[in-house]
Design a protein that fits this description.
Elements lengths: L3 H73 L2 H5 L5 H13 L3 E8 L4 E4 L13 H8 L2 E2 L3 E2 L17 E11 L2 E11 L1 H10 L4 H4 L1 E6 L5 E4 L4 H6 L18 E4 L5 E7 L6 H5 L2 E7 H4 L1 H47 L12 H46 L12 H18 L3 E8 L2 H8 L1 H18 L5 E6 L2 E7 L3 H17 L1 E2 L3 E2 L2 E7 L7 H17 L5 E4 L4
Parallel strand pairs: 17-18
Antiparallel strand pairs: 1-2, 1-6, 3-5, 4-5, 5-6, 7-8, 7-11, 9-10, 10-11, 12-14, 12-17, 13-14, 15-16
Helix pairs in contact: 1-5, 1-10, 1-11, 3-12, 10-11, 13-14, 14-15
Length: 564
C-alpha cells in the first residue's frame, strides 16, 4: 500500500501535466483558429478593396481616352472651319480652346498632307515635318490611338512631369476631311503624367503605408507606370507582368505571388470591357498589396492571442495544482476515515469533500478565458467594420462625382456642360446653326402628389426613353434638373429643330405610364445668336421659350427666333 504523501505527489504531477497540455493546447488552438480566421477576413477585405481600386482605375483611364477621342472627332467634323484653311485664325483659336478644356493635352497640332505642321498650340513645331511619326502615318488612314512613348520632338519645349519621370505621351489622331477628301491630320499629345493623376484619385491616402501599389503594363507585359513615383526604379529592375497562377486564371479574382523584389503580394488584374480604349491598346492594370504590410495586423493578433492564451493556461495550471492538492487531501481524509471504519470505529463518519468547488472554479476559469478570446474577436470585427465603412465612404464619394443621372441614365448637368461648351464654341466660330431645346413635363407636381414619387420617377424615365429614342447621334441630351431636360442640336436650323421638337412632343404625348396614363410636355426652343458669348445665354433663351409655352397652355412647342 502506497504512503499518502507519495500518492499525493503522483496525483498532483499527473493533473499538472494534464492541465498544462489541455489548457495550453486549447489556448494555442483558439489562437490559431481566431488568428487564421482574421487573416482570411483581412485577405478577403484587402482583395475586395484592391479589386475596387483596379476597376475604378480602368474605368477612369477608359473614360479619359474616350473623352479625348470624342473631342478630336468633334473637331475634325467641322468642314466649314477647315475650308478657311488648316492654318486659319479660327483653327488656331479652336486648338487653344481644346487644350484649355483638357489640360493634359500638352500639344495639339494640324499637319498638312506632306506632314508639315501648319498650326499648333503655342506655335510649337510649326513648320517642322512629322511625316515619319506613326501618328501622322496612321492618322491619314483613320482615327488612331497610340501607346505610351517617350517625347521625341517636343521634349525641349515642354516642362517635365510633376512626378519627376521622363516626359512621355499618348498620341491620338484623326484625318481632316472636306467633302470626303482628306486634307490633313489633327493630333493631340496626351501627357502620360495623367496616369499619376488617375492613381492619386483611386488609391487610398494610406496606400504607401499599407503597401498598396497601382501598376500599368502594356500588352507585352512591360511596365508603363507604377504609383508612388516608383516607375523608373521598377523599370530599371526589369519588373514585368508575369503569367498568373492557375488559381487566378479568371479575372478579377485576386492571387498571391512573389514578385521580382522577392516580396509576396496579393494582386488583382482588372479586366477592361470589350471595345474600351484600354482593351484596344492592350493595357493591363494591376493593383497589388504587400502581404507583410497588409496582413501585419493579423499576425499581431495571432501573437497576442497566443501569448494571452498561454498566460491564461499557466494561471489555470497553477489553480489545477492547488485543486489537485485539495483533492489529494480529500482522498487522504476519506482513506483515513475508511481505515478507521474498517478497524471497527463505528462512530467515524465519512467527511464531506469540498473538491467540487475546485471543479466549479475551473469551469469558471475556462469560461473567463473563452470570454476574453471572444471579446478579442469582437474587437477585431469592430476594426474590420470600421475599415469597411471607410471603403464604403470612399466609394460613395466616387459615386457623387459621377457624371450620369442615376434615375434616367442620362448625362447630368456636370456631364453635359463641358461637351455642350465644345459644340457651342464650334458653332459660334464656324457660323453654324445650333439650337437648344428645353423639355419640361406638364403638371409633374400633380403626378407626384397624386401617385407618389415612385410613379413620378417612372414618368421621368419614360420621357427620357422617348427623348433618347428620337435624338440623333450628334445630339447631346441631359437631365437638367427635376422634371426638366435639355437637348442640344448641332447643325440644326430653328425650323428643323421645331419639327424635331414637335415630333418629340407627339411621341411623348402618345405614350402612357402605368396609373398616370398620358403625360404631356412643353418644349422651348432657341437658336444660337452672333451676340452670344456663353452657352448659358443660349440655354436661358430656350428656358424663356419654355415658360412661354407653359403660359400659352402647355403641351406645345414655343421658340425664340434666331438673330443670325
Amino acid at each position: 500500500m502506497l504512503r499518502p504523501s507519495r500518492a499525493e505527489r503522483s496525483l498532483v504531477s499527473q493533473i499538472l501535466v494534464l492541465a498544462l497540455a489541455l489548457f495550453g493546447g486549447l489556448a494555442l488552438a483558439l489562437a490559431l483558429i481566431f488568428g487564421g480566421a482574421f487573416r482570411e477576413h483581412a485577405q478577403a477585405r484587402t482583395g475586395a478593396e484592391i479589386q475596387t481600386i483596379a476597376a475604378s482605375a480602368v474605368q477612369l483611364l477608359s473614360d479619359g481616352l474616350a473623352e479625348r477621342r470624342r473631342e478630336i472627332s468633334v473637331m475634325v467634323q467641322s468642314p466649314t472651319l477647315w475650308r478657311e484653311g488648316l492654318d486659319s485664325a479660327g483653327v488656331v483659336a479652336l486648338l487653344g480652346r481644346a487644350r484649355a478644356v483638357s489640360p493634359n493635352s500638352l500639344w495639339i497640332g494640324v499637319a498638312d498632307l506632306q506632314g508639315v505642321i501648319v498650326a499648333s498650340t503655342d506655335g510649337l513645331l510649326q513648320g517642322q515635318s512629322v511625316a515619319a511619326r506613326p501618328w501622322f502615318r496612321h492618322g491619314l488612314a483613320g482615327p488612331y490611338l497610340g501607346d505610351v512613348h517617350p517625347a521625341v520632338l517636343l521634349e525641349p519645349y515642354l516642362p517635365s512631369p510633376a512626378s519627376g519621370d521622363p516626359l512621355r505621351f499618348l498620341d491620338l489622331a484623326a484625318p481632316i476631311q472636306i467633302d470626303g477628301r482628306t486634307v490633313g491630320v489633327l493630333a493631340t499629345h496626351l501627357s502620360w503624367d495623367w496616369a499619376r493623376q488617375v492613381s492619386e484619385r483611386v488609391l487610398p491616402s494610406d496606400a504607401a503605408a499599407r503597401g498598396i501599389e497601382l501598376l500599368i503594363f502594356d500588352k507585352a507585359g512591360a511596365l508603363l507606370y507604377a504609383s508612388g513615383g516608383r516607375t523608373a526604379a521598377l523599370r530599371a529592375a526589369g519588373q514585368r507582368l508575369r503569367t498568373r497562377p492557375a488559381a487566378a486564371a479568371q479575372p478579377p479574382m485576386p492571387w498571391t505571388e512573389r514578385w521580382m523584389d522577392n516580396q509576396e503580394y496579393l494582386a488583382t488584374l482588372a479586366p477592361a470591357g470589350a471595345g474600351s480604349p484600354v482593351a484596344e491598346i492592350g493595357w493591363q492594370v494591376v493593383v497589388r498589396a504587400h502581404s507583410g504590410k497588409s496582413f501585419e495586423p493579423a499576425r499581431n493578433v495571432l501573437v497576442v492571442a497566443g501569448a494571452a492564451g498561454l498566460a491564461t493556461a499557466l494561471v489555470l495550471s497553477i489553480a489545477a495544482w492547488f485543486g489537485a492538492r485539495r483533492l489529494g487531501s480529500d482522498l487522504a481524509m476519506l482513506t483515513h476515515a475508511a481505515n478507521r471504519i474498517e478497524a471497527g470505529h463505528a462512530e467515524v463518519r465519512i467527511p464531506p469533500a469540498s473538491s467540487s468547488k475546485e471543479v466549479l472554479g475551473l469551469s469558471r476559469a475556462l469560461s473567463r478565458m473563452t470570454q476574453r478570446l471572444i471579446e478579442s474577436q469582437a474587437d477585431l470585427e469592430r476594426q474590420v467594420a470600421a475599415r469597411t465603412a471607410e471603403l464604403e465612404a470612399a466609394n460613395a464619394e466616387l459615386a457623387k462625382q459621377a457624371r450620369r443621372d442615376p434615375l434616367t441614365g442620362l448625362l447630368n448637368r456636370r456631364g453635359f456642360e463641358p461637351k455642350a461648351q465644345l459644340l457651342f464654341d464650334l458653332a459660334l466660330r464656324g457660323g453654324r446653326p445650333l439650337c437648344a431645346c428645353m423639355v419640361d413635363a406638364d403638371h409633374f407636381k400633380a403626378v407626384n402628389d397624386t401617385h407618389g414619387h415612385a410613379v413620378g420617377d417612372q414618368v421621368l424615365k419614360r420621357i427620357a426613353s422617348c427623348l433618347q429614342s428620337r435624338m440623333r447621334r450628334t445630339d447631346l441630351l441631359a437631365r437638367w434638373g427635376g422634371e426638366e431636360f435639355v437637348l442640344l442640336l448641332p447643325d440644326t436650323s430653328l425650323e428643323a429643330a421645331g419639327e424635331l421638337a414637335e415630333g418629340l412632343r407627339l411621341a411623348i404625348g402618345a405614350s402612357t405610364t402605368g396609373a398616370v396614363g398620358r403625360v404631356t410636355v412643353s418644349i422651348g426652343l432657341a437658336q444660337i445668336a452672333p451676340t452670344d458669348r456663353t452657352l448659358q445665354a443660349l440655354v436661358e433663351r430656350a428656358d424663356l421659350a419654355l415658360y412661354r409655352a407653359k403660359d400659352m397652355g402647355r403641351n406645345q412647342v414655343s421658340s425664340l427666333a434666331a438673330l443670325l
